[in-house]
Amino acid sequence: MGKIKMVLALLSILLLAGCCVDDESNSMFMGDCPIRTVNATIQCNGASCGSSLNASSGANVSVWSYKNSGTNSVNLNVSIYLMSNKDVTSSDKEITVVYTNEGNGYVTLPSIPIDTTLKNEVYPYEEGEEIFEFREPDFMRDEPPALIKQAIDPNLSQEPSFKVWSEGAKYNWSVSSDYSPVSRATTLRKQLIVNGRTINIWVEDSEYANGKMSAAKIDYIASNVGSVYANVVSMAGEPWGPHQASNLISSDQPLDIVFFNSGPKIGGYFNTINSYRKTSFSNSNEAVAIFICTRGAGSERPTLGVIAHELTHAIDFYQRFVVKNGGNQFNAFLGEMRAVMMEDVISGKISYNRAASRYKDWLSAPLYQQEFSDWKYSDPSSYAIASSFGSFLLRQYGVDFYKTLFKTYSGLSDYRAKEIDVLDKAIKVYDSGGLAKALRNWGASIAMFPAATAPKGFGYPEYNDNGFKLEAFDGNTYRQYRKLPTSSPATLAPNAHFPFLRKTTNNAYNESFVVPSGVSVSIVVK
């Protein structure tokens, strides 16, 4: 009997060692897994979509895609007939293929030949007015959730004290210069009231004396910052208000905007420790304050965008952390992504859009092969990636989506998983395909869709919503900045893309690709 059991056990091991599980039928059989052959399906719809079964119309953009949701690689068969019309012949068609990794880990890609003769010429560009932002890594935003929750006790009472300032007042602010805390002498140069909240504009005395922050510049900022504040608050909420924590500053606070020379590494920042009393953090300014470097203040319109960016961080801290008693504050990439999206949303109000130059960075670096959720504070590339995806989402789902993103919560403890979950939930309010579909369509947009005729769900069309105008990023214009890979990468990062071009042969496009598990492939014909 013992020998029979041993033989059966050995047979089981041999069977398992040489068996294969078929993704379609979930059945197990002996031998190596044969690679399945699959076909792409139409991904676009509506009047601007030129896809029809396995044919592409003569004028409109066509999009097909396939997502490998199985555990084994598959062979994707692509066979598309290219129709012509009086304006467009099949030989004029440009075919872009984009691999998108929709999984959580790096995937090994098959070796794909690249036709370098099809690359468009990339033109360098210079950004005339720009604040190069490196935000100080705010350690309170990166503390473990358990430690953060200990900082706020809703059962404790609070002292009803707050500072009252007048123009001409002097104050030594504790600031971060090149990531080191220093004290800077400042003067309150302008004070205004917007929607019941006092806004103080402080300027470092030495920066005023040397003309970097002239009276004319301060007047310009003061005359426009009220509109910026009102618009940001209308979408995200107030930056400070009622709470029950004795170790936080009182509920009634002005907003302090402090201009100082931060050195070359910091463009602007918001630090949550300033919202705590000195009994908790000795270097706290005990104020709701945002800090802006005077290095870029000569370009007033970009400065207004940075104010909106840092104000969004302040709002995130109060609305998601303080109001929620220590939970749900945005961390890392999603907090910064919301802040750069705010710059994009209000761009029409200040006649400057930093998101446009960040989009050029994303295309020309190129940065689309990097993981968008892997945030690095010391790397400006992270801002370009987050801004480009955020701008795509805004133009597909609008300002209401932006508000929904801010109000979406998750109970997950891991910050990165939590933020991915929050983003997915917010997108699903507007598209059941959620984050996975949005990533896939964002990747397909590397094909550079014409803004006016892009199928719904693709490209960067103009969007007018709730009094906010989001300018189009037209593919015909931005194509000149797109840089394509010259070789097939060995691996592809999570939430990243690998695009390449193909040409037509005899009014058709026929090719087969190996698609790893968790990867989608989009084919765009335009």
Structure report:
With 526 residues, the protein is an alpha+beta fold. It folds into two domains: 141 residues, no CATH class; 292 residues, Neutral Protease, domain 2 (Orthogonal Bundle), CATH 1.10.390.10. Helix content is 30%, strand content 22%. The chain contains twelve helices and 22 strands. The protein has a six-stranded mixed sheet with strand order 11-12-13-14-16-15. Strand 5 and strand 6 form a beta hairpin. Helix 4 runs parallel beside helix 5. The longest helix has 27 residues. The protein is elongated, with a radius of gyration of 27 Å. About 8% of the residues have low confidence.
Using brief descriptors, characterize the structure shown:
single chain; 2 domains; 5-stranded mixed β-sheet; elongated; 30% helix; 526 residues; 6-stranded mixed β-sheet; Neutral Protease, domain 2; 12 helices; 22% strand; alpha+beta
